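Team,

Forwarding the record for the chain on the shared tracking sheet. I've put the sequence and predicted structure together so nobody has to dig through attachments.
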Amino acid sequence: MAAAFRTAGTRKVAVVGVALSDCGRVDDATPYRLHAQAARRALADSGLDRSVVDGFASAGTGLLAPVEVAEYLGLRPTWVDSTSVGGSTWEVMAAHAADAIAAGHANAVLLVYGSTARADIRAGRRTGNLSYGARGPLQFEVPYGHTLIAKYAMAARRHMIEHGTTIEQLAEVAVQARANAALNPEAMFRDPITVDDVLSGPMIADPFTKLHCCIRSDGGAAVLLAAEEYVRDSRGAPVRILGTGEHVSHATMSEWPDFTVSPAAVSGRLAFERAGVRPADIELAEIYDAFTYMTLVTLEDLGFCKKGEGGAYLQSRALPVNTDGGGLSAQHPGMRGLFLLVEAVRQLRGEAGERQVRRPDGSLPELAVASGTGGWFCSSGTVVLGRG
């Protein structure tokens, strides 16, 4: 399968380092500490000196992100990005970083995230967010009970009505995620669950019971992208950024034309076209899964199956999806997009341990896709990666 490397400028771009911070239940850390821990581990994973890092991207912490986090890490970057579009932020940032490196505006860009979302609620430092506020366009929806979870539930119900998707098919997403998490020592929840377990749980927002919804954890992640001339000095096998796409759809539900189509339909098409590959060429997918419906509809919109066939496609297990356990079982500390890139890179490098995906002949996969979603299907970023 031929794939042209991403060359928006004159240089090819590779992921040379990835890492997670401590994840799960981390009661004694601050978000800054988790940022630093993940960043140090990613640099160590790359084998490169921190002096090569001249680009930095972060969002979600502080009033001047990424300035405050860069200062905490002792970095003085000449290229920065603080794009914040929800859970897809990190795929969008990876796209921007790849373009900047290819164009010669940066040599090595560090993407980093850290959050103590679970610990903060446990300690009473914050409460669970039911919505994103009531200003601007959202003021016309919040008074009528449109919580964050309810928006996803409405979309899932519409897909069930229009395409015959069943609640058992949605529950299967959670079951498969937990089966993958059982093989991941970094996953927060590893005990097996069944479809009946999912269906019999407490109702959160119809049709979602508790296990249809992501977990809340602490944790951080970091990814280091670098220009091709740094690859020879890196410790592990490089993973190329082959193609990226980004798209924003809507902020209010009234401006969303079709609840059964996510913005991944656009970001995915762009990413595959720019990479020169087809969905059929992809050997594993890391999909943002704050709720079970997100996995199903994103796979449809990326082109792995036709619209309305996502439930049957998932049940067929034709494609390894969310191999680390996803946000439903592994980690979900507020925004999970960066974790998708870490897992995709680990799989392509053959570093996933018991959960490692392999071809029938035992060889490693060559191509993976990571697709993040932000808000309530408000934004999408998709990245196609290749082992090179």
